[in-house]
């Protein structure tokens, strides 16, 4: 997940609008997500656990997550030559009921999205959301699931983005979901709706980055 290990990013014009939202979220928030997961692993390692076996299990899971994320780390259980989604999936299978496995589930879904496996990613995001109701990555997982639906031309994509706007008010994910709704409206030739949604994002105080993107999209309509 370190930025220097990212696959080459295709030029923006080759991405349909509906694919850009979560792709940009991954690029923009990659460091934040990785840092949050590393901190979560560190917290687990330093906390007093119920038993030595539990502590050892969490340590092993954390080590495998790091190895799956970054090939500068290595363990016997993680094959650095396999696809990222496969590496994270193996962590989930090998370390059930650990914090590492829960983190790996989100990373597996994100990797599947990056690999273009939108149907599989949608399913894994769904499992992650249902199994981790208190996770700070809930909104991000919901955004990823909505982006998968949009990428698959699923008619439920719009409702999924609207649910994010309603459930995660005043978050970066809600702002980006609004931007995605604008892109869907633009693709559907509903110019008035697209302009309104882009304007809403351009005026938001939560995320200057997405406000800038919205302004660029507004500029495409001309005067």
The gist of it:
The chain has 223 residues and is an all-alpha fold.
Structure write-up:
The termini are far apart. The protein is an all-alpha fold and 223 residues long. It contains 10 helices and no strands. The chain has helices at residues 17-46, 52-69, 84-94, 99-114, 118-131, 138-151, 157-167, 172-187, 191-202, 208-219.
Radius of gyration: 18 Å
| Poorly predicted residue ranges | 1-20
Number of DSSP E strands:
0
The tally of helices reads 10
Relative helix content: 55-70%
What is the overall shape? Answer: elongated
Main β-sheet description: none
Provide the residue-averaged pLDDT: 80
Distance between the termini: 41 Å
Task: Write down the secondary-structure element order.
Answer: HHHHHHHHHH
Helix/strand structural class: mainly alpha
Question: What share of the residues does DSSP label as strand, in percent?
Answer: under 5%
Structural descriptors:
disordered N terminus, 223 residues, mainly alpha
Question: What's the SSE blueprint?
Answer:
Elements: H1 17-46, H2 52-69, H3 84-94, H4 99-114, H5 118-131, H6 138-151, H7 157-167, H8 172-187, H9 191-202, H10 208-219
